[in-house]
Amino acid sequence: MKKKIFLVTGGSGGHFFPALALSKTIQNKEFDFIFLVDERVKSLAQKNFCNYVNILPPRFTKSIFQFLKSSFKIFLSVCKTIILILKYKPNLIIGFGGYTSIFPLVLGRIFKIKTLIHEQNAILGKSNKLLSYLGIQVALTFKKTVNAPRKSIITGIPIREKILKKKNNKKKIILVVGGSQGANIFSVLLPIILKSFSKIQLNKILIIQQVRKEDQSKLKKEYEKLGVEFNLKNFFDDIYFQIAISDIIFA
After folding, report:
1. Which residues pair with 138 in a beta bridge?
2. What is the pLDDT of residues 156-199, one digit of tens each?
3. What distance separates the 2 farthest-apart alpha carbons in the chain?
4. 129-147: pLDDT as tens digits
5. 3-state secondary structure string, the chain?
6. Are 145 and 121 in contact (CB under 8 A)?
7. pLDDT level of residue 228 (50, 70, 90 thresholds)
8. Which has more confidence, 11 or 150?
9. pLDDT tens string 14-51
């Protein structure tokens, strides 16, 4: 019988893709990976043909009214997670950060299931920090992660298979990424920087930029006004390829 492993990931690609990479790296007949996700990364799980369940716990908020309003949804999310634990009887639950990880990891401790949390960043996230107080083992990407427990282990970050094929392009490619959600600061700064370029220089450039939805329309107009070639997306599924073909990266 295959060992069942829950990979709990939500919020952004930064949480999802390390979980996906882990499942691909040790994929064999001994393990059966089940992704517990939220609405924001459900589409990523679908695109990558993952066995997943949307547990969708509501986002925590400082507003007492909103918290009370979400209480019923929180209750349903906890019940759904308990049913999944009883159904699959996982041998291990791994959380990859974000508030989605809280309930499954806490329930894992209650049901005496082996648990682990992975921190991708150089500062321990709020959810992972909270879970570490429960004695859950923490795996780190960086040796000097701020706020990490002393007994943390250094594993590095699981990465997907790299695509290193170089695409021929006469223009210099500038890749701009601000995490999987994009970053407003680059949408502000890049047009300012490019205004100092001549038309001849701008004709030699291709901007590939991951941009927030709320910034996309304005940024598109800025680049059209400048006359520079560009490709704007809210999310790149093929980020390794984009990195491989780029000459300069702002990140």
Report:
1. 117
2. 998 877 666 666 678 999 999 986 667 889 999 999 999 999 99
3. 65
4. 999 999 999 999 999 999 9
5. CCEEEEEECCCCHHHHHHHHHHHHHCCCCCEEEEEEECCCCHHHHHHCCCCEEECCCCCCCCCHHHHHHCHHHHHHHHHHHHHHHHHHCCCEEEECCCHHHHHHHHHHHHCCCEEEEEECCCECCHHHHHHHCCCCEEEECCCCCECCCCCCEECCCCCCCCCCCCCCCCCEEEEECCCCCCCHHHHHHHHHHHCCCCHHHHCCEEEEEECCHHHHHHHHHHHHHHCCEEEEECCCCCHHHHHHHCCEEEC
6. yes
7. very high
8. 150
9. 889 999 999 988 866 789 999 999 888 888 899 889 99
Block residue for tokens 């070639």: 229
**How far apart are the C-alpha atoms of 114 and 107, rounded to whole Å?**
11
Residue listed under structure tokens 């893709």: 17
